[in-house]
Amino acid sequence: MSTAAPRSRRHGRVRWWTYLMLSAATVACLFPLYWMFIVATTDTATATQMPPEVVPGGNFFALAGLVMETVPFVQALLNSLFVATAIGVGQAVLCALAGYAFAKLAFPGRNVLFLIVLLTMTVPTQLSVIPQYMIMSELGWVDTLQALVVPGLASAFGIFWMRQHITATISDELMQAARIDGANSWQVFWRIAFPIVRPAAFVLGLFGFVTAWNDFLWPFIVLKSPERYTAQIAIKALQNSYDVDLGLAMSGSFMATVPLVALFVLVGRRMVAGILEGAFKG
Q: Which pTM was predicted?
């Protein structure tokens, strides 16, 4: 026993080089955001000089005001918030519902349909732009926010994610017990299955939120009016056809990044816990 205790203490002790590696990784991850802020507080000449400037300047609020004057940036942030929130919530609920159906409900063609869902993950997103735009045009949704929300309410990856998680975490005996008590399929899902897989659905919703917030290609194609721009399209509108004002562009980019950083600070611990829970249970 005298030799086991020191050995366990040695294994439980964190080495100094572990902290060094974690600190280096943290600096590497945060440096792009810091550099973005530096450029957002200076002009293009200062941003491109050699050696580069490493101390923030004093022009951030002036450039931020210029961003607001150039494009309706606050409205763009609100549009992005609405679209990203709707897509995040929609994916969390609808993908969980579809994953539950593929995992626990028996119906003709279940395996074939799930295989088709998986095959759609192999199709590049760019190939769906033209038919998707044609559908939006027929519906009269071009230059509307629902053209961004509706196509993103479900995803093949989200359905696969939730199907695997539900298969691993919800037993058939639990569902049978609920059905014996008189619950129908919807009640089993909403009152039993969904509360159990809520952490995984929460993580999926966050992934959907971040993806929708950072999306550029589809909003750039379908949106025409400045008052309906999302944050990424508003940043593109800050650039003209001939040159790029780096300070102006980075000021808009920094203001569009701050909400994501704040979101991660608020829910980062819960997101990591949801990912680890799915990893251990799977």
A: 0.84
